Amino acid sequence: MFLEPVLSVILRCDAEGDGLILWPAGRKPQSGEVFAVPERPGCAVCLQGASRFEFVHSVPPVSDCRISMSWRWFKPEYMRLLMDQAGLLQPG
């Protein structure tokens, strides 16, 4: 559905320890396998390659205000499908 990379920037994070975590895909993480991204305002994250496809990424519920902005680019074929379903494609 999405192209690489996936980018995000932290705009605000009021609680230390809250935020993005990564762990190996396909199984429940073992002790020591979860990586917590040390977030602070201005922190930028780029997920591509192994970090995107071999690891799960998630933001568990946070304990205080956290604002981030993410950028994802749709694959052209998926975008066409969405536009077709919405009736936005021109015939021909």
Concise overview:
By secondary structure, this protein is an alpha+beta fold. It has helices at residues 50-53, 76-85, and strands at residues 6-13, 21-24, 35-36, 44-47, 55-58, 66-71.
Descriptive account of the structure:
With 92 residues, the protein is of the alpha+beta class. 15% of the residues lie in helices and 30% in strands. The protein is built from two helices and six strands. It has helices spanning 50-53, 76-85; strands spanning 6-13, 21-24, 35-36, 44-47, 55-58, 66-71. Strands 4-1-6 form a three-stranded antiparallel beta sheet. It starts with 5 loop residues before the first strand and ends in a 7-residue tail after the last helix.
Annotation field: number of helices: 2
Query: How many beta-strand elements?
Result: 6
Instruction: Determine Rg (CA atoms, Å).
Output: 17 Å
**What would the average pLDDT be, to the nearest integer?**
92
The structural class is alpha+beta
Order of helices and strands: EEEEHEEH
- Distance, first to last CA: 24 Å
Low-confidence stretches: none
Can you tell me the overall shape? globular
**What profile does the largest beta sheet have?**
3 strands, antiparallel
State the main characteristics.
15% helix, globular, 3-stranded antiparallel beta sheet
Topology of this structure?
Elements (H helix, E strand, L loop, with lengths): L5 E8 L7 E4 L10 E2 L7 E4 L2 H4 L1 E4 L7 E6 L4 H10 L7
Antiparallel strand pairs: 1-4, 1-6, 2-3, 2-5
